[in-house]
Amino acid sequence: MFKRKSLILLVLMLSLTLAIVGCGGNNQSADNSAPKKDIAEKQNQVDQSKDKVSNTDKLDQAPELKKLVEAGKLPPLEERLPENPMVVKPENEIGKYGGTIYLTQFSANSLGIPGHVNSEAPLTFNRDFNNLKTIGNFVKDWEFANKGKKLTLHLRKGIKWSDGEPLTVHDFMFWFEDIMQNKDISPIFPAWLKPGGEPMKVNAADDYTLEFKFAAPYYGFIDWINGYWYRGMDFFVPAHYLKKYHIKYNPNADKLAKKEGFGSWVQLFNNRNSAIFTETKPVGRPRLSAWVVKKVTPTGRIYERNPYYWKVDTEGNQLPYIDRIKTVITPDAETRKLKVLAGNIDYISSFLSLKDYPTLKKNEESGGYNAWIGKSLWASRVTFSFQQQYVGDKVMADILSNKKFRQALSLAINRKEIKDLVFMGQGTARQLTFTPGTVPVFKEEWANSYAQFKPEKAKQMLDKIGLVDKNGDGWRDRPDGKTLLLNVTANSSRALSVDTAQLVRDYWESIGVKINLKSVAEATLWQRERNGRTQVITKFMTGSRPPWDQYTPTNLTHYKWGNWLAYYNPFEEKVRDIPEDANAVKPPQEIIDWYTWGQKLPHVSGEKKKELLTKIGDKVAEQILSIGTVGMAGHVGVSNKGLGNVRKVGDNPSVAATKNAYMEQFYWKDEERRNE
């Protein structure tokens, strides 16, 4: 059970640790000998596709690749790079070639961090979290036309897959026509490819130009191809490699599948494609990433540099600097921590617990690493989300859907104490709202809405809505006379959620609301929520933007009017025929409008986008569908002391997490590690 005294002691230990090592801030330089830079300046090193190599006559490559060129086993560098390589500005300095970096891998069948690193989306994000932008990647430029109904993508001409075959728009056409529209592989054509209710149309204008036509304006399509929540990480696939496993191109694909030990050609095709970024790509599958898997071992995987990688540093040196990656399987959090403490993991910026930070700091010298807090985009690490379609108890359902009830409970929370005790003083005490820098408009008042610690005010608000102690037992009663018992379910898969929930239980009980606190595993928690069986659950909000179910009403069943919204078309403002057994109740107009703003957001741009975001932000601040606690709290990371150009970022899925570390520009400062 959570012990407040233990937490206070832990915080004092952490404070002493931070004071001794002077590491309280985010994104400190890993190289203590390098001149210190302002964090904002470092994060403003935006890798725009317009960046230029300082001297194109000095293109260079790794020594091992030079030897292969000299031996006639590999084409010259100029023939392997595209006409306009992507230029990556090193975090601190130009690196040096060589060495092996050790990363963690979840299991034999799930990659985790190596999946982030070894995937490439058509577009990507810059490094300035205070002004986050989508920038070019292997798609160099893009433009919308016809009021957002037409999008044109321009590939970098001359990019090659890791086996030397050219990347063209036909790789995308294969994905779109032969994978997404093949019912054996993809039984359901996804809604995100049907803006306005109609499948988008795609045309290959030439080998390097793709034209998209949408039935409705679709500016939000960019968030499906820029790595946002890992989207687009395998948007283009190596058609030349996969066609031999596809029945359309190989009539003997079924025979091949059975020969390989698979039940059908679809199973073999899916195995060779491995479409999800965390899936373990088979050896031999061409990639666009900096490293390519070459060997699978009982303890992990070995990746070697991609000789056709299409990114260079500002002096024309082909990336990556580091020769290879070796992964170490760490199936659980404890194993992961022990491997890190022993110095077996060279870089990790996700999946370490904040509670372990003092221990990690204490063992830096023995482990040969630096422990740090990576910058976080998470709007609230722990939120308390209120069920809006609670089943089985009409009185309780009405209480949960009353915004005054939620506002009062929000005012009863001591966020500063949560920040100090649970988050070790990291982050910002705030209400749930957008993360500054991730949206083009932000009001500080949103973060402050009902976020002050005012328990007496909370009591008065509960009194006004009739939730008072009628029998003098110390607990507030419901309108029907029963004791107001609020079921709160914490996510046991996330320790911070449990610790925060135990504090919040105390706050709410101090204003007379009796709490029944339980904790269950994450997967079970989501299922119970969808079934309308929860009252309040702990969730989280990353750097995500609306539409998201904690920011706008949703057509999911756990929202009060979700069954009705499922039949509502916000673009035509019409309702389809609703079956009698749908249990659909029409919402008030303000809820319909709120839902409509969220649904329209991906289809607008410029001032209209700001207008809708402002309306949504105002509504979230008023309604408090989910109560926020502490945001931007940072994530624990560790990097080997010998690594250079380390980018200290947290577990931020809204920018594809470790992908935003730009690991291709990491290098070994130690000659011994470079020669490993």
From TrEMBL:
PROSITE patterns: PROKAR_LIPOPROTEIN (PS51257). GO terms for cellular component: ATP-binding cassette (ABC) transporter complex; periplasmic space. Residues 48-65 have a biased composition (Basic and acidic residues). Pfam families: SBP_bac_5. GO terms for molecular function: peptide transmembrane transporter activity. One of its GO terms (biological process) is peptide transport. Residues 28-65 are annotated as: Disordered. Residues 137-559 form the Solute-binding protein family domain. Keywords: Signal. Residues 1-21 form the signal peptide. Transmembrane segments: none annotated. PANTHER family: OLIGOPEPTIDE ABC TRANSPORTER, PERIPLASMIC OLIGOPEPTIDE-BINDING PROTEIN (PTHR30290:SF62), PERIPLASMIC BINDING COMPONENT OF ABC TRANSPORTER (PTHR30290). This is ABC-type dipeptide transport system, periplasmic component.
